[in-house]
Amino acid sequence: MLRVSLGGKDARVKADENGYRWGRGTAVRVPKTAELVARELRRRIVRGELKEGDSLPPESSLIEEFGVSRPTMREAFRVLETERLISVSRGARGGATVHQPDVDVVARYAGLYLQSRQTTLGDVYEARMLIEPPAARLFAERRPKAVLQRLHAMIEDIDARIDDGEAYSLHAAEFHRLVIEGSGNETLNLLGQVMHSIWEAQLLSAVGVRYDVELARQGVRSEARLLELVEAGDGAGAEAHLRKHLENSRRVLRRFGAKTIVEVVS
């Protein structure tokens, strides 16, 4: 028997074969020991106590520290491997190497989730309209030099390769991702990473149907104008300009037929 708090009152509960404990009609899942071990090691990684490239202590040391069996510890390792927080090498000199959380892994998984939901490109554009223009405002207010330098370099580079539709598609997607990065907001940056791969795939899909060099040149001029507004510290102007830029892009890309993320990613 286990006593837990439910709705401010104690209730006696019993565990079923799935690890759930029941009391007064409410199920409470009690974590397995391996999950608790993984949780503690995960906490050490995200708090920086264990850094990128560090080796975890030997398995025998961790077993002694946590007071668990070898199979339980190995199950905890599998949980962390699945989350890409460690990589385990086998053999006599094997061990577990620590990795910091990777935004690309999160973005890929989120993209797969959106595909599985048959998410429409209209849905993605709606989210972009809510996220990117305000991010441009923050970018103009903060103006990080490193991001501005990268964006200027990108415009100079694509000017020389504007006839290459694939190069332009990759450029445009990365430009928008960097604008969001320039906001300095880590939560927005994560969302931008999720949308980046979808936006890139949509542009590449459209290029496969038809590439209009003049439209691409207009897009680059619009990007250059956005950077002028950012460097002037005109947050309202940058936000309004990027909103109009997105609206124009959506009108153009509607011509190319794809409706869902799966269609463009596939």
Would you kindly provide a written description of the structure presented here, covering whatever features stand out?
The chain contains eleven helices and six strands. The chain has helices spanning 33-46, 59-66, 70-82, 103-116, 121-142, 145-159, 165-182, 186-209, 213-231, 235-253, 261-265, and strands at 2-6, 9-15, 20-23, 26-29, 86-89, 95-98. The strands form two sheets. Strands 1-2-3-4 form a four-stranded antiparallel sheet, with no helix packed on it. A two-stranded antiparallel ribbon has the order 5-6. A hairpin with a 5-residue loop joins strand 5 (86-89) and strand 6.
Summarize this structure as a short list of keywords or feature phrases.
disordered N terminus; 4-stranded antiparallel β-sheet; alpha+beta; 266 residues; two-stranded antiparallel sheet
